[in-house]
Amino acid sequence: MTTDWNKVIKIMRSNSADDFIRNVTYQRIVKRINYPTEVDLSGAAIGILRLQDTYEMNTKDIADGKILNSKMRTVALTAEDCFEIGRVAYSEHDYYHAILWMQEARERIQKETKPTANLESILDHLAFSLYKQGNLKRALLLTDELYRMNPDHPRAKGNVRWYEDLLEDEGIRRADMRRKVPPMNNPRDKSNLKDTYEALCRQEVPINTKAQSRLYCYYKMDRPYLRLAPFKVEIVHQNPLVVLFRDIVSDEEMRIIEMLALARATVHNVVTGNIETAFYRTSQSSWLGSTEHEVVKRINKRLDLATNLETETAEELQVQNYGIGGHYEPHYDCSRRENVFEKTKNGNRIATILIYMTEPEIGGGTVFIDLKTSVSCTKNAALFWYNLMRSGAVDMRSYHAACPVLTGTKWTANKWFHESGQEWRRPCGLNQLDQERYVGDLGAPEPKRHLNIRSEKARK
């Protein structure tokens, strides 16, 4: 679409397009419609690459519009589309993906009756990417092909000599430079952290059956109001405690929250507050206070009852929308700096509650890297965990991430609770390693256990 828009701009600048220019100007200024930019194109391409890696998707399948086990099929990509994805990877010095997508572009352009891309550009980008990944002979052969195709190409002749010189430096005779081509070498930069994160998103990390056997569900009834309407709680992980509140909000409440959030959605850096491009986090967000709407006020009160934490010192409700490829890389919600109280009047983020407003078809779950735990999005449920130990120290095990959305849309609403005001709600433990056994644990016996508390949706 970005490429097509550049063509439209050329038409617009012709004298015959005055009416069209006026119409587009009206749409942009009066209706505030923004057209896609190069930044949008890059963001979309990087999102596709992220999905490809996380869910181990084949390049050809993506280009054909096949999405894993999803019933949804998308429109097949053209050679130009594949080239643009590869070009973005190339510009990011990501030669692993550049090779995959330039190869796909090359194969597709050969099948197109009316080529949508420039074969010379494909070969040029592919050859250099192959060289950067250690495939000198393959890079030379492709550059030979490019030179035969266009002897006047600005780089082809020089690159042929350059690759030959590099091979000669490796002790390879000129007669052998185009023979005995070794298998393709295309390693991907990976780390143990990234491997674990992606495996958790695919739900491929083995479950600890012993730990799993100790998990249970219970009805939270520790506040007078909850005697009439208890919360359904599922313990997802023990020590540290991670729980899921089932059916904590309604469809109608989430519809209103979404409507309020859409009016003020921005892409911004949560640290600086500046609106900017952030490839580590692809989402739109907005903040809603209790005075915005009665529903926001009602939800804040409910979160107080659910978590046993003071909401007066908590941050406003943050609503986020993650589109295709939307994610948030591994991070801590709390600050790891010392003397946080000196920087902020309410102290550090003691806990997080994350409401799943929607349920994407594939992807979008929350994963805890060190705990080897993944939680799928469950509509109208809320995930809750503590970021700090009872002692006030950062719980390093709270390191978590949001998996990229493959199909569907993910809406969430989260609230961060701060230390201030929790002196009686969550007092320091007698032992530095004291941990909750259940939400609001102040030493009373554990609640009655249930093997399963199904959601209202599951009962119908």
Summarize the structure in words.
Catalyzes the post-translational formation of 4-hydroxyproline in -Xaa-Pro-Gly- sequences in collagens and other proteins. The protein has 460 residues and is of the alpha+beta class. The protein has 2 domains: 37-176, Serine Threonine Protein Phosphatase 5, Tetratricopeptide repeat (Alpha Horseshoe); 194-459, Jelly Rolls, CATH 2.60.120.620. The chain has helices at 2-12, 18-29, 38-54, 59-64, 79-91, 95-109, 119-132, 136-149, 156-169, 192-201, 209-212, 251-262, 294-307, 340-343, 456-459; strands spanning 217-220, 231-237, 242-246, 284-288, 317-322, 328-331, 349-356, 362-363, 366-368, 373-375, 382-386, 400-402, 405-407, 410-418. Strands 1-2-3-11-7-14-5-4 form an 8-stranded antiparallel beta sheet, with helices on one face. Strands 6-12-9-10 form a 4-stranded antiparallel beta sheet, covered by helices on one side. A hairpin with a 4-residue loop joins strand 9 (366-368) and strand 10. Residues 268-273 and 276-281 have low confidence and may be disordered.
